[in-house]
Design brief:
Helix content: 40-55%
Number of helices: 10
Bound molecules: S-adenosylmethionine
Number of strands: 7
CATH architecture: 3-Layer(aba) Sandwich
Radius of gyration: 15 Å
Protein backbone atom coordinates (compact mmCIF):
# COMPACT_ATOMS: atom_id res chain seq x y z
CA UNK A 1 0.00 0.00 0.00
CA UNK A 2 2.62 2.57 1.13
CA UNK A 3 4.81 1.56 -1.83
CA UNK A 4 1.98 2.39 -4.24
CA UNK A 5 1.34 5.70 -2.46
CA UNK A 6 5.02 6.65 -2.72
CA UNK A 7 5.08 5.73 -6.42
CA UNK A 8 2.01 7.90 -7.01
CA UNK A 9 3.59 10.80 -5.10
CA UNK A 10 6.70 10.52 -7.28
CA UNK A 11 4.55 10.64 -10.42
CA UNK A 12 2.67 13.70 -9.16
CA UNK A 13 5.95 15.39 -8.23
CA UNK A 14 7.48 14.67 -11.64
CA UNK A 15 4.68 16.58 -13.38
CA UNK A 16 4.05 19.04 -10.55
CA UNK A 17 0.76 20.89 -11.00
CA UNK A 18 0.85 24.69 -10.56
CA UNK A 19 -1.15 24.91 -7.33
CA UNK A 20 0.63 22.10 -5.46
CA UNK A 21 2.30 23.09 -2.23
CA UNK A 22 6.07 23.54 -2.69
CA UNK A 23 8.03 20.30 -2.06
CA UNK A 24 10.21 21.93 0.64
CA UNK A 25 7.09 23.17 2.46
CA UNK A 26 5.63 19.68 2.25
CA UNK A 27 8.78 18.11 3.68
CA UNK A 28 8.70 20.56 6.57
CA UNK A 29 4.99 19.94 7.23
CA UNK A 30 5.53 16.17 7.27
CA UNK A 31 8.35 16.59 9.74
CA UNK A 32 6.13 18.69 12.03
CA UNK A 33 3.38 16.05 11.74
CA UNK A 34 5.82 13.37 12.85
CA UNK A 35 7.15 15.44 15.73
CA UNK A 36 3.68 16.07 17.20
CA UNK A 37 2.64 12.43 16.67
CA UNK A 38 -0.17 13.33 14.33
CA UNK A 39 -3.15 10.95 14.09
CA UNK A 40 -5.92 13.01 12.53
CA UNK A 41 -5.60 15.65 9.79
CA UNK A 42 -8.03 18.13 8.26
CA UNK A 43 -7.04 19.77 4.99
CA UNK A 44 -8.83 22.66 3.30
CA UNK A 45 -8.05 22.70 -0.42
CA UNK A 46 -7.60 19.26 -2.04
CA UNK A 47 -6.94 20.29 -5.67
CA UNK A 48 -5.44 17.17 -7.37
CA UNK A 49 -4.76 15.46 -4.03
CA UNK A 50 -0.97 15.84 -3.93
CA UNK A 51 -0.64 17.29 -0.42
CA UNK A 52 -3.34 14.97 0.93
CA UNK A 53 -1.48 11.94 -0.42
CA UNK A 54 1.79 13.04 1.17
CA UNK A 55 0.10 13.81 4.47
CA UNK A 56 -1.61 10.41 4.42
CA UNK A 57 1.82 8.86 5.05
CA UNK A 58 2.06 10.40 8.53
CA UNK A 59 -1.46 10.05 9.91
CA UNK A 60 -4.19 7.52 10.61
CA UNK A 61 -7.01 9.62 9.17
CA UNK A 62 -7.25 12.56 6.82
CA UNK A 63 -10.27 14.56 5.68
CA UNK A 64 -9.80 16.95 2.78
CA UNK A 65 -12.28 19.58 1.59
CA UNK A 66 -12.74 20.68 -2.02
CA UNK A 67 -15.53 22.49 -3.86
CA UNK A 68 -14.55 22.11 -7.49
CA UNK A 69 -16.04 19.04 -9.19
CA UNK A 70 -13.27 18.71 -11.77
CA UNK A 71 -10.56 18.72 -9.09
CA UNK A 72 -12.55 16.26 -6.98
CA UNK A 73 -12.67 13.84 -9.90
CA UNK A 74 -8.93 14.17 -10.45
CA UNK A 75 -8.17 13.83 -6.73
CA UNK A 76 -10.38 10.73 -6.40
CA UNK A 77 -8.37 9.07 -9.13
CA UNK A 78 -5.04 10.05 -7.53
CA UNK A 79 -6.12 9.13 -4.00
CA UNK A 80 -7.90 5.83 -4.56
CA UNK A 81 -4.80 3.90 -3.43
CA UNK A 82 -4.83 5.58 0.01
CA UNK A 83 -7.39 4.07 2.34
CA UNK A 84 -7.15 6.70 5.07
CA UNK A 85 -8.28 9.74 3.03
CA UNK A 86 -11.83 11.04 2.74
CA UNK A 87 -12.65 13.83 0.29
CA UNK A 88 -15.64 15.99 1.20
CA UNK A 89 -17.23 17.97 -1.58
CA UNK A 90 -18.54 21.47 -1.00
CA UNK A 91 -17.62 24.97 0.03
CA UNK A 92 -15.28 24.65 3.00
CA UNK A 93 -16.87 27.48 4.98
CA UNK A 94 -20.14 25.52 4.88
CA UNK A 95 -18.66 22.03 5.22
CA UNK A 96 -16.74 23.09 8.35
CA UNK A 97 -20.04 23.80 10.07
CA UNK A 98 -21.15 20.21 9.54
CA UNK A 99 -21.48 18.42 12.89
CA UNK A 100 -19.43 15.37 11.88
CA UNK A 101 -16.45 17.55 10.93
CA UNK A 102 -16.90 20.10 13.70
CA UNK A 103 -17.19 17.63 16.53
CA UNK A 104 -13.93 15.88 15.77
CA UNK A 105 -10.56 17.16 16.92
CA UNK A 106 -7.53 17.38 14.65
CA UNK A 107 -3.80 17.29 15.31
CA UNK A 108 -2.92 19.03 12.08
CA UNK A 109 -5.13 21.41 10.10
CA UNK A 110 -3.63 22.39 6.76
CA UNK A 111 -5.15 25.45 5.11
CA UNK A 112 -4.43 25.93 1.42
CA UNK A 113 -7.64 27.15 -0.22
CA UNK A 114 -9.09 30.59 -1.04
CA UNK A 115 -6.69 33.20 0.40
CA UNK A 116 -9.23 35.91 1.39
CA UNK A 117 -11.09 33.18 3.33
CA UNK A 118 -8.14 32.32 5.63
CA UNK A 119 -9.55 34.41 8.46
CA UNK A 120 -12.96 32.71 8.11
CA UNK A 121 -11.41 29.23 8.14
CA UNK A 122 -9.29 30.14 11.18
CA UNK A 123 -12.26 31.36 13.20
CA UNK A 124 -13.98 28.00 12.71
CA UNK A 125 -11.09 25.53 12.86
CA UNK A 126 -9.37 27.02 15.92
CA UNK A 127 -12.01 25.27 18.02
CA UNK A 128 -11.28 21.91 16.40
CA UNK A 129 -7.58 21.69 17.23
CA UNK A 130 -6.32 19.06 19.67
CA UNK A 131 -4.09 20.27 22.51
CA UNK A 132 -0.90 19.10 20.83
CA UNK A 133 -2.19 20.23 17.44
CA UNK A 134 -0.98 22.76 14.86
CA UNK A 135 -2.75 24.85 12.21
CA UNK A 136 -0.65 25.48 9.10
CA UNK A 137 -1.40 28.15 6.48
CA UNK A 138 0.35 28.04 3.10
CA UNK A 139 1.26 31.04 0.89
CA UNK A 140 1.58 33.46 3.79
CA UNK A 141 4.44 35.29 2.05
CA UNK A 142 3.51 34.91 -1.63
CA UNK A 143 -0.19 35.81 -1.10
CA UNK A 144 0.02 38.08 1.93
CA UNK A 145 -1.98 40.87 0.22
CA UNK A 146 -4.72 38.47 -0.91
CA UNK A 147 -4.93 36.91 2.53
CA UNK A 148 -5.45 40.39 3.95
CA UNK A 149 -4.15 42.19 7.02
CA UNK A 150 -7.25 41.42 9.10
CA UNK A 151 -6.22 37.75 9.11
CA UNK A 152 -2.75 38.59 10.41
CA UNK A 153 -4.25 40.83 13.08
CA UNK A 154 -6.74 38.12 14.05
CA UNK A 155 -4.04 35.51 14.66
CA UNK A 156 -1.82 38.03 16.46
CA UNK A 157 -4.68 38.85 18.83
CA UNK A 158 -5.46 35.16 19.42
CA UNK A 159 -3.93 33.00 22.14
CA UNK A 160 -2.03 30.90 19.63
CA UNK A 161 1.72 30.75 19.40
CA UNK A 162 2.71 32.02 15.92
CA UNK A 163 5.72 30.83 13.92
CA UNK A 164 6.37 31.95 10.36
CA UNK A 165 8.73 30.07 8.04
CA UNK A 166 10.08 31.05 4.63
CA UNK A 167 9.86 27.56 3.11
CA UNK A 168 8.28 27.59 -0.37
CA UNK A 169 5.64 30.34 -0.54
CA UNK A 170 5.74 30.98 3.21
CA UNK A 171 4.07 29.02 6.00
CA UNK A 172 2.50 30.12 9.25
CA UNK A 173 2.25 27.53 11.98
CA UNK A 174 -0.06 28.14 14.94
CA UNK A 175 0.03 26.07 18.09
CA UNK A 176 -1.66 26.24 21.48
CA UNK A 177 1.65 25.87 23.27
CA UNK A 178 5.13 27.03 22.44
CA UNK A 179 6.64 24.70 19.83
CA UNK A 180 9.53 22.80 21.31
CA UNK A 181 11.50 21.88 18.21
CA UNK A 182 15.22 22.28 17.81
CA UNK A 183 16.78 23.71 14.65
CA UNK A 184 18.09 20.17 13.98
CA UNK A 185 14.53 18.78 14.07
CA UNK A 186 13.37 21.35 11.59
CA UNK A 187 16.24 20.81 9.16
CA UNK A 188 15.21 17.20 8.64
CA UNK A 189 14.08 16.36 5.13
CA UNK A 190 11.31 13.84 4.61
CA UNK A 191 11.89 11.89 1.44
CA UNK A 192 8.80 9.66 1.43
C1 LIG B 1 -3.82 25.78 -3.86
S1 LIG B 1 -5.04 24.58 -4.24
C2 LIG B 1 -4.69 23.30 -3.07
C3 LIG B 1 -3.43 22.56 -3.39
C4 LIG B 1 -3.25 21.29 -2.57
N1 LIG B 1 -3.28 21.55 -1.15
C5 LIG B 1 -1.93 20.67 -2.93
O1 LIG B 1 -0.90 21.12 -2.43
O2 LIG B 1 -1.93 19.73 -3.74
C6 LIG B 1 -6.49 25.28 -3.55
C7 LIG B 1 -7.73 24.44 -3.74
O3 LIG B 1 -8.73 24.92 -2.85
C8 LIG B 1 -9.98 24.84 -3.48
N2 LIG B 1 -10.84 25.83 -2.80
C9 LIG B 1 -10.74 27.18 -2.82
N3 LIG B 1 -11.67 27.73 -2.03
C10 LIG B 1 -12.41 26.72 -1.53
C11 LIG B 1 -13.51 26.65 -0.66
N4 LIG B 1 -14.08 27.75 -0.15
N5 LIG B 1 -14.00 25.44 -0.33
C12 LIG B 1 -13.44 24.30 -0.81
N6 LIG B 1 -12.38 24.30 -1.65
C13 LIG B 1 -11.86 25.49 -2.00
C14 LIG B 1 -9.69 25.19 -4.94
O4 LIG B 1 -10.70 24.69 -5.79
C15 LIG B 1 -8.34 24.52 -5.15
O5 LIG B 1 -8.48 23.22 -5.65
Amino acid sequence: MTKKVIEKIKTLESKRAPWNVAPESMSFILRLAEIIGCKNILEIGTYNGYSALKLSLVTNKLITLERDEIFIKEAKENLKIAKNIKIIKGDALKTLKDKVIRNDSYDLIFIDAMKPEYQGYFLIVKKMLSNKGIIIFDNTISHRKKIGETFFKEIKDSNFEINEFSYGDGLIVLSKNKMKFSAKDLKHRYNG
